[in-house]
Design a protein that fits this description.
Blueprint: H1 14-26, H2 29-52, H3 62-74, H4 77-98, H5 100-107, H6 112-146, H7 157-184, H8 187-212, H9 215-221, H10 225-233, H11 246-270
């Protein structure tokens, strides 16, 4: 009878773990396809909406023109978060499915650095792709809108804050899905949980708020990831509506990430691979 012992790789630094996670992320076909879809959907929907914009020959105030342009530029984020949720879950559950997670945890016995490195690499990559997608959409739609009497102002600092907020929301949603995937350890379950939190839960809370007219339900909806995230890049505020400021929306989503990631770390350290 033989006994197999596993030892950590000597000299493995956090930088080495980051490099390993980067190699794994960029060599996955799902990563390339999902990021490509984010770019295509964001730009495509932006151009589609810009092409249908119609001022009916009336003059539009400058601030309203800017808001319309930003809304057109960020429309695709509402759909891209679904792709990011799927990819975020697959990044970790794919390793459980193939058994690669055993090699990962054998190389990093403390486990926490492996998960944090994966989250950092995936989060930064998603942020960069999201920012490029939104910026490309803004550049592509500006001349289309200008032909319809809606002019964009790139010199205004607000658009850049909106672009950063939209990209940040995509990245944070991906990290939520990554944490849920680590907790559930199953691709179908992780994807379902992430999409449920982003899509289903807000719908249920909205129905409860609409039927019962309960203030607590309406208030609860403001602290869901989708509501907080939408405020990170929302250039149009509904008159009279109680809404979070962009920084408050970001804080809401970050809180979700921190709580779920903390649970993921605890379970990762306690459970067998």
């Amino acid at each position: 009878m033989t006994t197999t012992t596993t030892t950590a790789l000597p000299g493995l630094t956090f930088g080495g773990i980051l490099n390993s996670e980067w190699i794994k992320l960029r060599t996955l076909r799902s990563t390339l396809w999902c990021y490509a879809l984010i770019v295509v959907i964001t730009i495509g929907l932006g151009l589609l909406l810009a092409g249908t914009a119609d001022t009916a020959g009336t003059a539009v105030p400058a601030d309203a023109q800017q808001a319309i342009w930003l809304q057109v530029s960020t429309l695709g984020i509402q759909f891209s978060v679904l792709i990011t949720s799927v990819l975020g879950a697959l990044v970790i559950t794919g390793e459980y499915g193939t058994g690669m997670i055993r090699s990962t945890l054998a190389a990093v016995p403390r486990r926490t650095p492996a998960l944090l490195a994966k989250a950092l690499v995936f989060g930064v990559a998603t942020f960069v792709v999201g920012f490029i997608s939104v910026l490309a959409t803004a550049l592509a739609t500006a001349p289309v809108l200008a032909s319809r009497g809606i002019h964009a102002d790139f010199g205004d600092p607000q658009p850049w804050l909106v672009f950063l907020g939209g990209a940040g929301y995509l990245s944070l949603v991906g990290l939520i899905a990554l944490a849920l995937g680590t907790i559930i350890r199953n691709s179908a379950g992780g994807i379902a949980a992430a999409l449920g939190l982003i899509l289903v839960v807000p719908t249920i809370v909205g129905i409860i708020a609409g039927v019962t007219k309960a203030d607590w339900a309406a208030d609860l909806g403001q602290y869901l990831p989708s509501s907080g995230g939408s405020q990170m890049y929302n250039a149009l505020q509904a008159p009279g509506a109680v809404q979070l400021e962009p920084w408050q929306g970001a804080l809401v989503v970050i809180t979700w990430v921190v709580v779920l990631m903390a649970g993921a770390v605890i379970l990762l350290k306690k459970r067998d691979a």
